[in-house]
Amino acid sequence: MKSDRQFFANLMLIAESRKVNMEEMFMYPLGVIPWALANSDGTMKKTNKALLSLHLEKNVPAHESFPLAASCVLDGMAIIQKVHGEGLTFEELSAMVLQKVLIYTRERIDVVFDVYVDASIKEIERRSRGESEGMTFQNIRSQHKIVNWRRLLRSSDCKNKLTKYLVESWREEKMNSYFSGSKVLFVMYGEQCFKFSRNGTEEVIELTSN
User: Fold this and answer.
1) How many CA atoms lie less than 13 Å away from 14 in the CB half-sphere?
2) pTM (2 d.p.)
């Protein structure tokens, strides 16, 4: 309180001598950083993302069931994180993840994979959590056996290469047998979007996005 009192006293003196409009001055932040984005010590202000989902859900009525024609949007990396990949080959992992995606009884399923960019705020946050200390691969091969699965998922570079491998392996003709009926799968990886079905794979140009 004493510090604040002295601060405002100094402001009043400066305003008197320099003819500053105090009402206009207090319309703007007085700190060197915007308080909506940072704390007083200069660190970035973080919020709980789960609070946003709760805020959105409170305005949406709950439904016990959805029509078969409804679309289903999935977080691709969240599904990968739930898989126990230790000891599997990357080919086996690819088939397992695809099965977990297609288990949803919808005609259309959309999977969106995270994008890991080096020059980004999110990447700095991952490094501060030690996620950049994971193992790395030059190339991911189908018959390579996975060792230290959790350590692999700590590397942004590895996760980028893993999601790229999954999408490329799903494009192989032998994967068409996993699709039944009219079910289609849209997968967003990087800037590209691919449509998968029992008839094969095609790139969806109109859904390309950066």
Assistant:
1) 8
2) 0.68
